[in-house]
Design brief:
mainly alpha
Length: 312
């Protein structure tokens, strides 16, 4: 689940913090990096567990409604949502159960939020269409949760505030995690029952090694990379750059120099996008131009053995 987009973002955050906190202990900072990445994986599992938590909340409401129907002699309420096949499969998923058993905090600790989001769900058009539909199969049940997640969970201010209170590490992770939760929902297959695999923490050891190498190269070769910036920035007003811009460019140069298989234009584009989130409105243009100039300078001087994209 932890991909290079997330790794790059975390390294930007941790490198900036490394220079700001003054301790300058690279081993401690590296441990913090991997802890921060592991918290993103925790959030992935926690968001899947939210679907189970909402399902439990629906059953509590159903029990009340069924008791009232028996008492008043009225028709019994539908169990369609409470017995949603996808949610039941997720509830029994061995990997998710293993995660929830190790956590001190569960969605049962957030009853007010569960009540509120359950109400939002039952009032939504997605829910009403599902309940009224004659289609009654696993695919329809799974598609319901994909739609509910996209419309009511992916962008939910109350949820964002709650997650921020629970962990500072989750402030910037949810957008990436949401994409992986939706990918997981789409991958679920009824025939896999409780042994359906969730996404692994890392797709491969290669990505974990990438994180370690990139972070260490960024810190240990800082003087060298900042010298490259100075050499290539004669036509740029270096003083106008925010400190975060310098950190972002330092990491981008580390990636260019350390990973021969990653094209220069990919590296530049990735860090320009990160700058749009973490630096000033004008930073993207500066960073794009400066990294292009730095890359060309390094290639021309023979220090970087890659091809530079040609200006169109």
């Amino acid at each position: 689940m932890i991909n290079r987009e997330l790794i790059r973002t975390k390294i930007v955050q941790l490198t900036y913090a490394y220079y700001q906190n003054g301790s300058k202990n690279i081993d401690t900072a590296e441990k913090e990096l991997f802890f921060s990445l592991s918290k993103a994986y925790d959030l992935y599992n926690y968001m899947l567990a939210l679907i189970v938590g909402i399902t439990h909340e629906s059953r509590r409401h159903l029990e009340v409604a069924e008791s009232r129907a028996k008492r008043e002699g009225t028709p019994m309420p539908s169990r369609k949502f409470a017995d949603n096949r996808f949610a039941l499969q997720l509830e029994e998923n061995k990997m998710l159960l293993e995660f929830t058993e190790t956590q001190k905090k569960t969605w049962n600790d957030e009853p007010e939020f569960l009540k509120k989001i359950y109400t939002q769900i039952t009032e939504s058009e997605v829910y009403k269409e599902y309940m009224e539909s004659e289609e009654d199969n696993y695919q329809a049940d799974r598609e319901l949760w994909r739609k509910l997640y996209r419309t009511l969970i992916e962008n939910n201010d109350d949820l964002d505030s709650l997650l921020e209170e629970q962990s500072l590490y989750w402030n910037d992770d949810k957008a990436v995690v949401d994409s992986f939760v939706l990918k997981t929902i789409k991958r679920f297959d009824e025939k896999n029952s409780s042994i359906q695999e969730l996404l692994p923490e890392y797709d491969s050891e290669e990505d974990k090694d990438y994180a370690r190498k990139l972070f260490r190269a960024t810190i240990m070769n800082a003087d060298e990379y900042q010298h490259y910036m100075s050499e290539a920035s004669r036509n740029w007003d270096f003083s106008r750059l925010a400190y975060m811009d310098i950190v972002i460019m330092q990491i981008a140069i580390a990636e260019m120099m350390t990973f021969p298989s990653i094209p220069i234009n990919v590296t530049i584009n990735e860090y320009v996008e990160i700058s749009k989130l973490y630096s000033t409105p004008r930073s993207g243009g500066y960073i794009n131009g400066m990294l292009d100039a730095i890359a060309r300078h390094l290639v021309e001087s023979g220090r970087l053995l890659k091809q530079v994209r040609e200006n169109s």
